[in-house]
């Protein structure tokens, strides 16, 4: 009985991790991204640098290495105060289908 209770609790704890909600800032810009080399990426045809501590999140909201980003991924991104790319979210099909809000 105790074993069944433990398994049930363990399974319930993992459900919360799967239901994580992504919060992409409304100010994030949309572009196609491609990793070039090291901390250099191409966003919307423009070469840019990743900031120190930049985060790239995949469609499951996991942090991934920039080199793991699939070629020409549709993303939303924000810049830091120096104009470097600071946060990137690879968009799911659902997120990509949504229109950006007007500034």
Task: Spell out the blueprint of helices and strands.
Elements: H1 2-18, E1 29-37, E2 40-43, E3 46-57, E4 63-64, E5 73-79, E6 85-90, H2 93-97
Parallel strand pairs: 3-6
Antiparallel strand pairs: 1-2, 1-5, 2-3, 3-4, 5-6
Adjacency order of strands in the biggest sheet: 1-2-3-6-5
Low-confidence stretches: none
How many helices?
2
Distance between the termini: 57 Å
Oligomer: single chain
Cα radius of gyration in angstroms: 17 Å
Number of strands: 6
What letter string, H or E per element, gives the SSE order?
A: HEEEEEEH
Instruction: Name the shape in a single word.
Output: globular
Give the biggest sheet.
5 strands, mixed, barrel
What level of helicity do the residues show? Answer: 10-25%
Mean pLDDT across every amino acid position: 86
The proportion of strand residues reads 35-45%
Quickly give the structural class: alpha+beta
Structure description:
The protein is of the alpha+beta class and 103 residues long. 21% of the residues lie in helices and 39% in strands. The protein contains two helices and six strands, in the order H-E-E-E-E-E-E-H. A five-stranded mixed barrel has the order 1-2-3-6-5. It is globular, with a radius of gyration of 17 Å.
